[in-house]
Amino acid sequence: MAHVPTQHGQAGPSVWQKSTMGAMMGAGVGLTIGFIFGSYSILRGGAGPRGVLPTLSQYMLSSAATFSFFLSIGSVIRNDAVLPPHLEAARLHLTQPILRSREEGIVMMRRRWDMEKLRERTL
Question: How does residue 90 score in pLDDT terms, banded at 50, 70 and 90?
Fold first, then answer.
């Protein structure tokens, strides 16, 4: 499922498409990691009573399912922004960071603590 570049005024990929793309990437990564760790485990400890192929396939499928699940959720969360990426980058580039001195931070913390104490006294 290739992503088609969007033009001005067109919508990007849907949430389902983002989730599917994340799941496919996770499956590929999971199969690879499962093959590496499964092969190492079989070489180190033996295949066990089920044999080499079932043991290796269990490693590969379990890691593929895990990676697919988390990457599909992560790709939806990561790409679910209010602003498009180029506008978010411009906003971060053009706005001034909020830098405060240590003394200002201590004064702000003391004010918050005092407000919390007042709130607790009134309750």
Answer: confident
